[in-house]
Records
---
Amino acid sequence: MIRCIAIDDESLALDLLEDNISKIPFLELAGRYTNAFDALNLMQEKPVDLLFLDIQMPDISGIQFLKSLKQKPMVIFTTAFSKYALEGFELDVIDYLLKPYSFARFLKAVNKAHEFLELQERAKEIQKGPAFGSHYLFVRADYKLVKIDIQEILYIEGLKDYVKIYCGEKPVLTQMSMKSIEEKLPPHDFIRVHRSFIVAFNKIDFIHKSFISIRGKEIPLSDNYKDNFLSLVQQNKIME
């Protein structure tokens, strides 16, 4: 079951959402709200899986509300204004329903949410297996789960609520904290060298007193992490 809530300042829009949700066997409506702040209280008590969110509302817009959330559920925007579509997708939402929408279009959106949740669960099971931590990991990017070969990672850069993983032909941007990605990496193969950077030991070209060079990229070596990093160098755990 996907636990969801609906937020819209128009009661008729909420009535339609509630009716549509009731027709979907895998959806459970935990609450409906005309005010985003009231919905926040429920979300803090018990997390939800999916949020149906109007964009243009008084006091706070749906986009502002979504940006304020530390733990973001899957989101389907419901709005009468197509001008917000690009910004909505930049926030990595599941879908964007333009009012008035049909039940068929609603069903397509929630099926995407259901498929994505299944992918997340499969990825978790894979990551519990013996291959996890030594071969690959899955991250959410470009509205799908992307498989990354850990051995191809050069370094990782933290960007507020996102991390950019430099590997392969182009970097992969995913919504994740530095702490979360660090916990998923083999500790003997990667090390934090700066608040915003994690590097792969075997990809280091040379070490300067203030930076590390990997494929021509100068990565800052912070004083807060330098002692631990240099200690590992002296113990010959890197730079063979």
---
Amino acid sequence: MGWREIKDKARSQVHSTFGMAATYTPPGATLPEQTLACSVRLFESTTLVGDFDSQGMAEQAIAAPELVFLVSEVSPVVGAVVAITGLRSYRVEYVYPVDGITVKAEASRV
């Protein structure tokens, strides 16, 4: 077993443990049958932006949500909406290249 296989197996286990049920709606979809059930991992971090004053405080803090998908479930595209069951919805803003069995996307809250 090579490094890629070991990494993919670990990612699969992490995703099955921490993935949350979600509904993926591609851009322009109008019918319920156009949505896909999937699982995603959500990472929400806060990024400090702006000029820092002498006390080390930023002028602004912005949320930077990222979603991780299994490629076998969905190939996200910009403009799609992902509704995480029991939480909130996110719009896909940027999709990174596929990395093994997963693909990461930057998102914004809807």
---
Amino acid sequence: MGLGDIIVVAIACSLCSGGALAQDAQSQSTQPQNEQPQSTQPQSTLGDAVNAMIGAWEFSNADHDKICRFNFRADAVSGGYKLDIDKNCPNVFPSTKDIAAWAVDNYGNLRLLDVHGDAVIELTEVEGGMYDGFKPEEGRYILQAAAAVQVRSADDMVGDWAIARGTGKPICMLTLANAAAGADNLMMLKVKPGCDALITRFGPTSWQMDNGELVFLSARGQTWRFEENDINTWQRVPESPDPVLLVRQ
């Protein structure tokens, strides 16, 4: 091959190399510049963690003598998903008054958020269906699926109780007796003298536990239902602006 042939081949190779470099540069320039880094947790796993939270949960302290209930929903809101909290929760745990939403981060931690998307409480999963967290002013928190929480038995409820309106003084004293009051697993209820007209008009005569709720029944078949706020306080449901509380004595 002569010198002229070598020069021609060299020029051709240079042109091919330059074209390839230009094509590669053009390809890189067309890639999205604002592409975000991928989550360190697979999206399917993150979706499973979110779905596992949907439903009713119990929020308590470590001694389980302060209790309120959360309902985790799938409705998207700013920063996460909507969270419904019992109206009584801020009375038991003041920090919960600011909670409006929830989210699961890439590490599987549960974040309870305010309306701005900032974390009010952060909890870590310690086992399936149970989370815990801590705030110095309120101590240790336990969050567990409502389905996994032990339901109160009738034996747990036997004893003396007071009925109060809101945070006021008691308007009636009564005893949940450990004695049968006929069929259908009903137990005797004894109302003490001096009760408010609200109670005497209702006239409860028996009680029972029904799917975790405490039920009072009158001789006319009317019922009042109570839901546990904490181990010593139950609230009549559905809730009303002037709540009726049942307080252990």
